[in-house]
Amino acid sequence: MTIYSLYIYDRHCACVYYQDWHRTKQPKRAGEGGGILNAVSQAVSPLATDSAAPTPSGFSSPRNTLSSTSGLVVAVGEDPVTPLPNPTEHARSNTLPFDEEAKLVYGVVLSLRNMVKKISGRDEQFTSYRTSSYRLHLYETVSGYKFIMLSDAATDGLRFILRQIYNGPFLEYVVRNPLVPMDSRSQGIDNDYFRASLDRLVRGLSVFN
C-alpha cells in the first residue's frame, strides 16, 4: 500500500499546501499569474523571474519508486466534474501546470461531495472514492479546511491519518505558528517544520511504502 500525495485547501477553495512521496512524473510548475498562492510548495511554485530561482525543498519528493504503470496519481483533464483519469494514461499525456491540477482535484471532490448530499441526504458524508488505479481520501475540518490524500487502490480508508495530520503537525506548526498567515488569500502554509513533521508522520505509517 502506497501513499502518493497530499493536498490541503482552505475555506476559500485555494490550495495552500502540497506534498508528494511517490510520483514517477513530477508536477509541472505553475505558470506566472496562474493563481497559485505563495508558500504552497517550492516544487510547484512559479520559477523566479531573476537568476535566483527558489531551491526545491528537501522534503518535497525524496523518493520516486513507482513505475509508470502502477503509481502516477495526478489530476488531469478538462472537465472538473469527471473523476480523475487513469494514472497510466496520464503518464503518456502532457502534464498540467500545478495550479490547473489543484483546481481539478478540488473540483472533483466538490462535485462528488455535492452529488452524495443530493442523492443520500444532508447527513451523508463523502470521504473517499476508488478507481482501479488509485483511491482518493477526504477529511474536512469544522473550519473548512480540506485534506485530500491520494493512495493506491488497495489502501483502506485513510481518513484517520488525515485527522492525525490535522490534530498533530497542522495544529502544531500551522495553526499555532504566529508566522503562518491563516486565511490570507495570498499566502500558503508551507514551512520547514510542518513539512518535516508531516513527512516523518507519513513515512512512519505501516501503509507507507
UniProtKB/TrEMBL annotation:
UniProt cross-references to CDD domains, sorted A to Z: TRAPPC1_MUM2 (cd14855)
SMART domains: Sybindin
GO BP of this protein: endoplasmic reticulum to Golgi vesicle-mediated transport
Subcellular localization(s) per the UniProt record: Endoplasmic reticulum; Golgi apparatus, cis-Golgi network
A single GO cellular-component term on record: Golgi apparatus
Source organism, top-level taxon: Eukaryota
Transmembrane segments: none
UniProt KW keywords: Endoplasmic reticulum, ER-Golgi transport, Golgi apparatus, Transport
Pfam families assigned to the protein according to its UniProt record, in alphabetical order: Sybindin
Similarity-based family: Belongs to the TRAPP small subunits family. BET5 subfamily.
PANTHER family reported for this sequence: TRAFFICKING PROTEIN PARTICLE COMPLEX SUBUNIT, TRAFFICKING PROTEIN PARTICLE COMPLEX SUBUNIT 1
Assembly behavior: Part of the multisubunit transport protein particle (TRAPP) complex.
Protein name (database record): Trafficking protein particle complex subunit
Organism the protein comes from: Suillus plorans
